[in-house]
Amino acid sequence: MTNKTSKSSKGQKPAGATEMAFYAKHEKIYPRKVTGIFAFWRASGVFVLLGLYYAVPWLSWDGRQAVLLDLPARKFYIFGLTLWPQDFFYVTALMIIAALSLFFFTAVAGRLWCGYACPQTVWTEAFLWIERQIEGDRLKQMKRDQAPWTLNKLLVKGSKHAVWIVFALYTGFTFVGYFTPIKGLWEKLLVWDMGGWEAFWIFFYSFATWGNAGFMREQVCIYMCPYARFQSAMFDKDTLIISYDEKRGEPRGSRKKNTDPKEKGLGDCIDCTMCVQVCPTGIDIRNGLQYQCIACAACVDVCDQVMDKMGYPKGLVRYTTEHALQGGKTHILRPRLFVYAGLLLTVMGILVYSMATRIPLELDVIRDRIALYQENDQGLIENVYLLKVMNLDTHERKYELSVSGIPDLQLDTGGKSIVVQPGEVIELPVRLAADPTDLKKRSTEVEFHLQAVGSDKLKVNETARFLGPVSR
Amino acid sequence: MQTPKIQRVIAIMWPSFLMAGAATILFFTAFDPQALLMDTRFADLSRLGAYTIGFFLFWALTAASCLLTCYFQRPCAFRGEPEKQA
């Protein structure tokens, strides 16, 4: 970027140079198509990840959508699991695990995430592929962009955008399909009868996809991505990076094939600039490690091919570590990794343990706020409560309720049995009655015990206060 | 040194977007919009609608905060120094 800026500011008045940097106009990057082993892995990443993204919302589980973050109904279905707003802890733990995994993999293998798995990379790759199918490779695209507008150019550009937009709209539709049942959404889409909010988010996400993958591209990584800024904190001299072997490559220079570079005093770099042409973020890897580098390894693939053609050994640009480049040994096992791995395993352990011991039943007790207590016709003191029983299990449950805390405490549930459908909440008004002589204090703690019929583990206790007059 | 315009626009719109997303998730995990709006004239608003409006309100708020940060980040004249025209 800086190179280009200074180049384009040449011929300006000297004072204008800073202004040029100030208004640095974005120059479009036309990454050249690249083939090779890392390009294969990246394409595989695109297929697997986009495949998952588009397929998963259509999977079914127990007659419902397998993965549905049902925002309108305030519950998340993830295969056999149903999560409620009360289970927010699990989501938080998952986020922490994701962040720690990112740290761990960054420390080991550098920016693997950026080069192969980040949605920005994945969708940009897909958009670039569409662009190449319609507009042709790098040179054709550059030529067309510089040429004046003709009917042909309009047609080519128009069809590219048409395909992009359809692809983006389907992406937006799929996104909303994670939050509201996708089959119903599809049926409504076909007759154009979606709710306004669904339609809004489909368009919003489509627009973001089209803008980010079609136009913003590497600028997202450079200006918007927080990870790109702080990832270097996870780096050390044993982290896998993509690097140009300066000792071997310099002094760079063009030469005829079959000439001995040593005779001409040249290194192995033939200065073909292919590594710059394939770079999706428009950097020159030969300038050293830069934070704009997303470690996609396109330059590794293309340079290896050039080295092959020249009959030089591969790996002038390669995956390596700083230690290895300096001629030292790379230490894979090192304290930093153990710390990240330890943290990661701890949080994972906590998550698994709490998931395994999760009781899918919830009981809330709300005291009747109107009357503190009342005396019934038998001379007993009565308190009224509203119980909310929430069945977080996957099938219907019947529960038994009991109370403790005061001797001979009577429980009146109105004779109804407590049966709750999965995912339902029922409200149950109950009445507790106690003999005033048993009340030692104005407020006594009582405990409700809710026990599922046929399951010993499925039980919860909830405390409440029982109010009454103090007997002397 | 001045940053590129795109970077400044992003510095306002993007962190505020992220934080608005986080705030929306936290807020609506704790409070069900339907319970909040039950006795208001917005009672008919669907949950999805409430989430959406909530998100954009949060975004407006966080963006305003980012905007002020960016504004106050502009270099100011030192004491005794005449004000420079940008």
> What is the global morphology of chain B?
elongated
Biggest protein-protein contact in the assembly: A-B, 22 and 18 residues
Principal-axes shape call of chain A: elongated
Q: Class by helix and strand content of chain B?
A: mainly alpha
Total separate domains of chain B: 1
Describe it for me?
The complex is a heterodimer of chains A (472) and B (86). By secondary structure, chain A is of the alpha+beta class. Chain A folds into four domains: 1-30, no CATH class; 36-233, no CATH class; 236-325, no CATH class; 361-467, Immunoglobulin-like (Sandwich). Chain A has helices at 2-8, 16-22, 37-55, 88-109, 112-117, 119-135, 138-146, 151-177, 182-190, 196-216, 218-224, 226-230, 246-249, 261-264, 274-278, 298-310, 322-325, 335-356; strands at 60-61, 64-65, 67-70, 75-78, 81-83, 241-244, 317-320, 361-367, 374-375, 381-391, 397-404, 410-412, 418-420, 425-434, 443-452, 459-467. In chain A, α3 (37-55) packs across α6 (119-135) and α4 runs antiparallel to α18 (335-356). The longest helix of chain A is centred in the middle third of the chain and has 27 residues, at 151-177. Chain B is elongated, with a radius of gyration of 19 Å. Chain B has helices at residues 5-30, 33-37, 47-73. With 86 residues, chain B is mainly alpha-helical. Chain B has one domain. The model of chain B has no long low-confidence stretch (mean pLDDT 87). Chain B is built from three helices and no strands.
